[in-house]
Specification:
Blueprint: H1 25-64
Region (Disordered): 1-27
Biased composition (Basic and acidic residues): 14-24
């Protein structure tokens, strides 16, 4: 059977947070947009952290190049 949407007066079963089925398409889109924005900000920080390591790694590689001997 199909589920009916709870009214505003009814308590929502999962702790007060409406499920995606009870949200309007606009609310669902906003939720996805905020989730994507948060993920992108997290990824941007990780990329910045990695780029900060690049100069240190490349200078270390130059220092180590003389340490290896060919067989």
């Amino acid at each position: 059977m199909g589920r009916r949407r709870p009214s505003d007066e009814e308590e929502i079963e999962d702790g007060g947070r409406p499920s995606d089925e009870t949200k309007s398409p606009w609310e669902q889109w906003q939720g996805c947009n905020f989730w994507i924005q948060g993920r992108c900000e997290g990824l941007q920080q990780q990329v910045e952290d990695l780029f900060a390591l690049v100069p240190a790694l490349s200078s270390r590689r130059e220092d180590m190049e003389g340490d290896f001997t060919t067989i």
